[in-house]
Amino acid sequence: MVVVESIAGLSRSHGCGELTANEVGQEVTIMGWVHRRRDHGGLIFIDLRDRSGLIQVVCDPESGSTFKKAEEVRNEYVLAVSGKVRLRPEGTANPKLSTGSIEIIVHELRILNKAKTPPFYIEDDIDVDEALRLRHRYLDLRRPEMQHILYLRYRTTKAIRDFLDKHGFWEMETPMLTRSTPEGARDFLVPSRLRPGEFFALPQSPQLFKQILMVAGTERYYQIVRCFRDEDLRADRQPEFTQLDMEMSFVQREDVLSLVEEMMAYIFQEVLGKKISLPIQRLTYKEAMERYGTDKPDIRFGMEITDVSEVVANSGFKVFANAVAEGGVVRGICVPGCGNFSRREIDELTKLAAVYGAKGLAWMAINEDGIRSPIAKFFTSEELDSLVNQLGGKSGDLLLFVADKEEVAATALGVLRLEMGKRLKLYDPEEFAFTWVTDFPLLEYSPEEKRYVAVHHPFTMPMEEDWELLDKEPQKVRALAYDLVLNGVELGGGSIRIHRRDIQEKMFDLLGFSPESARSKFGFLLEAFEYGTPPHGGIAFGIDRMIMLMSGRETIRDCIPFPKTQSGTCLMTEAPSKVAAEQLQELHLRTIRKEPNINTNGKS
């Protein structure tokens, strides 16, 4: 029977991974989890692990009761070990471990707690269903690669705080219980017990509060804050997530961008030892869409989109010519080394383009003896040469074309570009390629809502040179907004904010708010703008996305200690869950059972 002992009288001297050859001959005490136990007959070897790493400890039969305890030890038992550090015998060192040249000869071993056999191995690169990992998250987080991510997260937030402190920012807190406002994702609502029938909302971001802090004269604010959005989930989206929010008074766009560039360079150098070249490349929204088909361009590789509308406008291929005549475009990309693609492989790419609205995908394979394509016969040799030259094609390449509305052609080719870049491994996964995207449209028209909606949010300042377009052509107004993109992922976004009541009221009017509705929803902000609001601007970054990219993971679920699943549930705590009827009564709420749909055959 395993006897569990007390920690009393012992003091931990080192972490398991902190010991080096400098401690040879010293008496040490370490504590941690049994990573692996090996019984070699005369000796028992135990790999003991804590967050700092792993070290081998050795128990021999001459240690008496200590050896007997070692015989009872199993994986994930919690131990305290005291002993002397020595060099491993010649030929037995493990170069893969930082402690691989040393071991501890045990003279005292205590079993501090037992452990059941875990449902999966506590080691890296395990092939285990994610649901099982999330159900036992406390075990999953013990794995060294997950410990590394937690440490990386800590180091990153510390670097952010250190940098912003040096640049005069104050860390402030804003309310978690606030007012529900429109023009964003769906709110999480919290019923008020003291105000029956009324609700708080959990903040989607501290946007309004950080602007109010600028009115209050704090001048430079930041917050590493939890935000909540009740929206459909994906690999880089969670219902609750962490943002770095920053706001500055008396600044223009260039002030924000340059300070953020300096901050990113500091973080990546401090945390990863990676040098970020400054200044960071900039693209306007228009340039990004035309060249990369997305406002989140991955610039680690080329294969840029090219407009060939002029070349094909009068060609014999009516699909292309008609698209241009009807106000659309014809654009293409050159996929290197894929001129030998089979029809089945091209059909797969066509299906992918169709998902993003393309009605078809035309192609040309460049061979040494000419062009292989079902549409080549519709073009003159001069037109074919011009297409190849404009796209930068050479023998062995594959040209892909989409003829459609500008938005469809851009999006479909942008997706194909990313897909082929990934398949062909055209970029270095270790590279960090930043780019700014600027000059976004201020508004976009929503056919569903039959009104304009804000591309970023309703508090973004329009470019001063576009103000006269607000009444005549609002869709052409550009915003003083900017996104920072890293490796094709939007890392953060911000803008210079509206700081005048008249402009803010104009913006609400363009968005379809009546004066009464605007006052009802945002009256406190409009009133604050009457008391001397400074020009101000800021930006917000997704901390979880940043850690995902820095650690090379595929999902932010690996970068959040206790994430939700794709369906928004916590498998470990089984949240959300039903609550007692008494709790609902206190909140003046009741649940309504949704009746099943019954068809004419009486089946649900």
Report on the structure:
This protein is 29% helix and 23% strand. It is of the alpha+beta class and 604 residues long. Among the domains are: 16-113, Nucleic acid-binding proteins (OB fold (Dihydrolipoamide Acetyltransferase, E2P), Beta Barrel), CATH 2.40.50.140; 301-426, Gyrase A, domain 2 (2-Layer Sandwich), CATH 3.30.1360.30. The chain has an 8-stranded mixed sheet, with helices on both faces. Strands 1-2-3-5-4 form a 5-stranded mixed barrel. Strands 12-13-16-14-15 form a 5-stranded antiparallel sheet. The model has no long low-confidence stretch (mean pLDDT 95).
Shape: globular
What is the CATH fold-level name of the domain at 301-426?
Gyrase A, domain 2
CATH superfamily of the domain at 301-426: GAD-like domain
Distance between the termini: 57 Å
Number of helices: 17
CATH class of the domain at 301-426: Alpha Beta
- State the secondary-structure class: alpha+beta
The appropriate CATH architecture of the domain at 301-426 is 2-Layer Sandwich
Question: Total strand count, please?
Answer: 22
Average pLDDT number? 95
Roughly what fraction of the amino acids lie in strands? 15-25%
Radius of gyration: 30 Å
* Strand neighbour order, sheet with most strands: 6-9-10-22-21-20-17-11
**Main sheet characteristics:** 8 strands, mixed
Helix content: 25-40%
Given as residue ranges, the uncertain stretches (5+ residues, pLDDT < 50) are: none
